User: Fold this.
Amino acid sequence: MPDHIVRAVTTDGFIRADAIISRDLTERARKIHACLPLATAALGRTIAAASIMGAQSKNPRDSVTIQIRGDGPLGTIIAVSDGEGNVRGCLQNPQAELPLRADKKLDVGRGVGRGQLIVTRDLGLREPYTGMVELVSGEIAEDMAAYFLESEQIHSACALGVLVDTDLSVRAAGGYIVQLMPGANESVAMRLEKAVHAAGPVTRLLDEGMSPADILFKVLDGFEPEIIYEQPVEYRCYCTEERVERVLTTLGKDELIKLADEQDHFEVTCQFCDRRYSFTSGQLKDMADGIAD
Ligand SMILES: [Zn+2]
Assistant:
């Protein structure tokens, strides 16, 4: 099943729900960063959340960035989505490992640790919108739900899952974010909570090979969901030589000249993908010349 997002609203208009299957893009992320399972799970959950939030944007050129700044061994995790849910991501320590939890699951919560979750929505306005919450558990889905409640005043149920195979590849990945819309009363909230609980862990739904639509109908059992949006999504990086140059110039004039003197060629790999950019010492000197003293 190719990666895609499906959105449904209930006919009463009180619930909006998005589900994603993101196996292929999570596998791509794993390969780019050579992730071990703990990092695959943490990064996979974060990029799935970013993809859903990105796809909720009004404009394809909008972007959503999720930064998870935890003090655990994984370090900072970053996921960036365009306005259609195409996503990219990276993390500080892809090789971090921890013992499995007592229930044999990857200990993403300890891997992430304590810290903050920061969401930046760039809607093409002068100032991007930024919201921040303290991490609740580091399990990412719970942290996202806390973000929606505290920062955007939206009650939500969020579940994100990544299953890693014995050969370290991604067997299944995806999740859902279900949100109560303004006007939804307590009884809708309670019925939804029951339905979400009855649906069971998202990893089980993913392992059964459910599509995003199947997941939505399962999680919204008892409601009348209507599918309003379907969109294929993929791992997509927007790096260009120009962007890499811009990042290099932030090193400053002296540092660039030093680099140019040290070697004939200077190679940089994009932070988000496996693309490599190579610059000659002449190009580095030109860049240095372009920076005002
Ligand atoms: Zn790139």
The first helix runs from residue 23 to 33.
